Amino acid sequence: MATSVAGFVQQLAVCYVGRGYYFYVRGGIPAHKEPETTDRKLVSRYGIAVSKWTRCRRRKQGEASLQYLRHGNFFVLLATHGEHPFFASEGKLVRDIRRQPLRFMAYSIGCRPARGGGPLHPSVRIERGEFQALKAALGRIAVHRSVDDLCRVLKSLPYEPYAPVRDQMRILLRSINRRRKVAGLEPVPLEAFRHRRRSVRPFGPRPTAQPAGNQNLSCSESDVQSDCISERTSLWSESDEQHAEQQPEPEEETGDETGEFGSPAETGSGTEGLGPPACGHDDHD
Q: Under 8 Å CB-to-CB from 61, ≥6 apart: which residues?
């Protein structure tokens, strides 16, 4: 079980999607059930607890390999190309992450080719509804807060700065500074948000619990978080089908408005960060 959101996203994107686990089924465990019981049931049903040598042998024989990942009551089963009872058993529930990104918490995790026709790589960005809510909340305070206040707000945002997330943060910053320019105010510098991703241990000790938001936030940061939650609640009330239909227009591929695409300057993997990823040991000997 991943002990943090950052660990779950890193393990899923870098260590699984980045290694060809493109097919997935997502699910939730009811509050009245023990998650560990579901863990054991699914791992046993699909024969997931095998060694890396067994996985390698199965791949050579044309069989799919599976992984199981959970955070809290949310879980995802992932599979590579190949034959496996998983595909027949789950049927129409199976999704291809290259075509339908997986939405988890505030993130959208997908897989796309690098610009210019490069190889596929994982892509982690802020989920569309979350991004729209955040943009609206920041727009309301853009000309009513000092540069220092806005810098603290942006640095306090909990999104890990994968390459597409950094692009989205630049979009937010440009939106803020356009409003501030019209009002004759000092712009917020590019250094206002984090540019380097922290590599985490996904299956390490559970992180120290923190209250919703941050108890050290000033009124400015608290206002943005509460506004963002309010906007997010409204936006996320839409169905998954409605979200799926909201595809970006071709002319918006710079990400200037939707925050859905990385910039040409960062055509490498959307999972780049500090050093090699701290992938959890996902093999069972």
A: none
| Strand-by-strand arrangement of the 120-126 sheet | 102-104, 107-113, 120-126
Alpha-carbon span 25 to 42, nearest angstrom: 12
Three-state DSSP string of 120-188 = EEEEEEECHHHHHHHHHHHHHHCCCCCHHHHHHHHHHCCCCCCHHHHHHHHHHHHHHHHHHHHCCCCCC
- The ranges assigned to domains in the chain are 5-125, 128-205+216-266
Q: Please tell me what DSSP assigns to residue 248.
A: P
Residues whose CB is less than 8 angstroms from the CB of residue 265 and which lie 6 or more positions away in sequence, other chains included: none
Rounded to the nearest 10°, the torsion over CA 280, 281, 282, 283 is 180
Please list the alpha-helical segments (H only) found in 27-121: 35-45, 52-60, 85-90
pTM beyond 0.85: the answer is no
Task: Reduce the DSSP state of residue 14 to 3 states and report it.
Answer: helix
Instruction: Print pLDDT tens along the chain (285 aa).
Output: 888 999 999 999 999 999 999 999 999 999 999 999 999 999 999 999 888 898 889 889 999 999 999 999 999 999 999 999 999 999 999 999 999 999 999 999 999 887 777 788 999 999 999 999 999 999 999 999 999 999 999 999 999 999 999 999 999 999 999 999 999 999 999 999 888 888 878 887 665 544 433 433 333 444 555 555 444 434 333 333 343 333 333 333 334 444 443 333 343 445 544 344 556 654 443
Q: Which helix (H) or strand (E) segment is 222 a member of?
A: helix 219-235
CA distance 39 to 139: 43
